[in-house]
Amino acid sequence: MRTRTLTASAAAVTVALGTVTAVVANQNGGGGGTTPVAAPTPTPAGGATTPAEKGAAPGDFNGDGYADIADIADGNLYGAVKGRRAAGFVTVVYGGPKGASAARHQIVTNPDGARRGDLFGHTLASADLDHDGRADLVVGQAGASGRVIYGGARGLTARTAVLPGGSFGRVAAGDLDGNGVADLVTTGSRDIRLYLNPGAEPGAPQVSGLPLPSLDQDAPGGPEDDSIRPLVGDFDGDRRTDLLLVHSYRANRGVPHSNLVLRRGTGGGLGPAETFAQPANQAIDSETARTGDVNGDGRTDLVYPVTTRPGDAEAFAVRLGAASGFTDPHHVALNGFGPAAEGAHHGGGLAVGDTDGDGRAEIAVGLGRGEGGGTVLLVRGTGSGPSTGSFQLLGQDGEGVPGTDEKDDRFGQGLAFRDTDGDRRADLVVGVPGENGGEGRLYVFPGTAKGGLTTKGVANINTPALGIAGDSAFLGGDLLF
């Protein structure tokens, strides 16, 4: 197993955990010195854990009640790569009472050793699979089986388990059989694999076929453009977790198409597949489709950029969850939010989260426009859906935002809502992967009780602070959501 020692500040110490290198802040306060922290004793893969009374929230790897940030550097997103990124690694930044801090971080590499082209971490998900009160991280890699990295009192540990069944494209976690413990669903090239109650020793998955339309073999890219994103939530409001498969593909010689396949949670497991056709010329970008309760009715809604032509999206849409499945899509044009958004198109990530704790989630959309490095549009959630009259625009050239807006910075390429300071209001993590020629940067904008986000106390995290300078990490390009 590969280890790497990172340079910590005077108020931090380094803990090596096999393939996971952690920098843990001094827990005792005070000035100057450091406090020795013993590394957790690794438990063999499949080893028993003590069940917790309540499982941890996804992404809380040390179970302290503060959400953590995980970012992928898989060597496959932006072309030329160097250093560790050619094999892939995952960067974790831990939350705390004052929010996310670079002083508390981990770099996770392949337990089997780094090999160029592994794309370790090309997809991520999180849940407390062994129900020990600390969230675990599910990591995919190209050409090999995925792996669970288990959480512990000081963060992710050296205890891991392999997910049998081979490599997968995307992964999602949720309680799909209604027993109170998280399950996993992964997408193969033409199948869906369901890992029920994987716990500390995942067993062989159940494999179910998925009704997919025939693909146009003559289309540009052909079947390679076929994409399935699994998402979980209570879309029909019956208090059971459902599985939604967002299927995007090209047919009719390259025209983008998509549909939704819903399998509802029932008392006996997942129900039969129900297909919801997407209107013509309104294809869903499955890679950036996200879920959340935008109107506060207790049902999970689907939010996504609308692709009206290949490679472009000038609007996002919301399909509200309903007892019947979904409402018709409601479109919101991206250029309708003042002069700063004129000519804007979807040029980055998308995230859904409740920034003010009112039960109605906001929508963050990364915008590309002109020669700048990117802008993020935040649209408030209301009882009727997204508001076009209450919004916020964030950029590196904005007041209170450290840094400079530069071409190709890609501010907002990665977006995720995480409650890093534990105040029950979602903070917005903004990735800037093009910063400094592909080094990347993370910003964390705190949520506020009055709605929206604030630049007061914004976290500004660069690669030198995380010990990955020079690795061409493109930090913030693809975040755990």
Automatic annotation (TrEMBL):
Keywords carried by this UniProt record:
Glycoprotein, Repeat, Signal
| Pfam hit, one | FG-GAP_3
Record's PROSITE patterns? FG_GAP (PS51470)
List the biased-composition ranges (Low complexity). 35-56
Superkingdom of the source species = Bacteria
Q: Please state the span of the N-terminal signal peptide per the UniProt entry.
A: 1-25
Location of region: Disordered: 29-56, 198-232
InterPro entries given in the database record: FG-GAP (IPR013517), Int_alpha_beta-p (IPR013519), Integrin_alpha_N (IPR028994)
Q: Which SMART domains match?
A: Int_alpha
What protein does this entry describe?
Answer: Integrin-like protein
Record lineage: Bacteria, Bacillati, Actinomycetota, Actinomycetes, Streptosporangiales
